[in-house]
Design a protein that fits this description.
Elements lengths: L3 E7 L2 H11 L4 E8 L9 E2 L5 H10 L4 E4 L2 H5 L2 H6 L5 E2 L7 H4 L1 H11 L6 E4 L2 H9 L5 E5 L8 E4 L2 H12 L11 E5 L4 E4 L2 E4 L3 E3 L4 E2 L2 E3 L3 E4 L4 E4 L6 H21 L5 E11 L2 E8 L6 H8 L4 H10 L13 E8 L24 E5 L2 E4 L2 E4 L3 E9 L2 H12 L19
Helix pairs in contact: 1-10, 7-8
């Protein structure tokens, strides 16, 4: 393998981190991004196309050696399947295997069948039946839109009136669109939430170190859910025993269950897990790299990512050695004012050139070049990613780098990783 041409589908911080890592491979000649952002433009060719049909048409006249599918919504519409039909190697699960993410109700039923530890739950398509079930249960209760909702489709209700409002908003007002046609109602799990990732070739798996995302917009985990305001990895308090249980009771049984039903999972499995008093339990399954988790993980991965992706595609993951740095990584997200609600775009970003520390990498999420200036173009704008000898060291570097950066309305959490120290 050499002189590879690679297409990465997506335009956020996760895709910037993947392109940054793939660029380091001596086997990669050129990277294309669809659509990409201002950050990826520095290391790849941005195609500026994002529709599935446009991408497939482009691939027909520009055959790639590898395609990497980033975001969940592309997996849900069968992007992997469509690329496969062109006989191009593609990293990412098929639409059928990715159903564990685009249908939470499907994932919960599969967990029930496979005996995977998760919160008690029931699925509903009728709001009256849902409220009747909630009334007989305890609070707080978790109410989820079954479909994709950009990481925001979860409401925690503390009493019946909040639950009633949530059910009506999701199922009747359709605040998450068609994603709310089916809802999952589940018990509220007490514990500490972590992110885990595993490469899979459909049969074999390879676990990542532990990580933690910070979902809420404000400090002390307050305010509405976002796509993630920052990550740290690995977590000092997560033990080898925790990770072994996650591998043996969660990841392997799921891969086995998907293979058994004829939809083998080849790609990146991302279980969100709650470490409870009774042990690790699944909050949800994702079928792709996490964002912003990937921005921290790619700083720690020492093995050539190209080799790993092909091992997953070719079913040879059991023969592929994967090495991780013994350092710590921290990524703090800088977001637009108003996010995760309505926010303005086009605010000029200043100060990036002041960061000269090689331990810092700035990953672009929502950015673009406009009239020669770097401006905001999304809710989560930049991921300030640092590596250090330990978690405190990495966090200190991230926050020091942020002092140089500014744009109008910039908001970020100042307590990323604090609970893990």
């Amino acid at each position: 393998m050499s002189n590879l041409k690679v297409l990465i589908i997506g335009g956020g911080g996760r895709e910037h981190a993947l392109s940054w890592k793939l660029k380091q491979s001596p086997k990669v000649e050129k990277i294309f991004m669809a659509p990409g952002n201002a950050g990826t433009a520095q290391i790849a060719e941005n195609l500026g196309i994002s529709k599935k049909e446009e991408i497939i048409e482009w691939l027909k006249s520009n055959p790639m050696d590898l395609v990497v599918v980033g975001p969940d919504d592309y997996l849900a519409i069968g992007m992997t399947d469509a690329v496969r039909e062109l006989n191009i190697p593609v990293f990412g699960p098929t639409k059928a295997a990715a159903e564990i993410e685009w249908s939470k109700s499907f994932a919960k039923e599969l967990m029930r069948t496979a005996g995977i530890p998760t919160a008690r739950f029931e699925n509903f398509t009728d709001p009256v039946a849902a409220l009747s079930y909630i009334e007989k249960g305890s609070f707080p209760v978790v109410i989820k839109a079954s479909g994709l909702a950009a990481g925001k489709g979860v409401i925690i209700a503390n009493d019946f009136s909040e639950a009633e409002a949530a059910v009506k908003e999701i199922m009747e007002s359709k605040i998450f669109g068609e994603s709310g046609n089916t809802i999952v109602i589940e018990e509220y799990l007490l514990g500490r939430e972590i992110s885990t990732h595993a490469f899979s070739d459909g049969e074999h798996i390879s676990m990542f170190p532990s990580a933690q995302d910070h979902k809420r917009i404000f400090e002390n985990d307050e305010g509405p859910n976002t796509g993630g305001m920052g990550t740290v990895a690995p977590l000092p308090w997560v033990t080898g025993d925790h990770m072994k249980v996650i591998e043996e009771q969660i990841v392997r049984p799921l891969i086995k269950a998907l293979k058994a039903q004829g939809t083998p999972f080849r790609g990146l499995l991302f279980p969100g897990v709650m470490i409870t008093e009774e042990g690790p339990k699944v909050i949800e399954f994702n079928a792709r790299f996490g964002d912003p988790e990937t921005q921290s993980y790619m700083r720690l991965l020492e093995t050539d990512l190209v080799d790993i992706l092909f091992a997953c595609i070719n079913g040879t993951l059991d023969t592929q050695e994967i090495k991780w740095s013994n350092k710590s990584a921290a990524t703090v997200m800088l977001a637009s004012s108003g996010y995760p609600g309505n926010y303005e775009k086009g605010k000029e970003i200043l100060g990036l050139e002041k960061n000269t520390d090689t331990d810092i990498v700035v990953f672009h999420g929502g950015t673009k070049l406009q009239d020669g200036k770097l401006v905001t173009n999304g809710g989560r704008v930049l991921g300030i990613s640092a590596v250090g000898d330990n978690l405190q060291d990495a966090l200190n570097k991230s926050y020091k780098a942020i002092e140089n950066i500014s744009f109008e309305g910039m908001q970020y959490r100042r307590d990323i990783g604090k609970k893990s120290l």
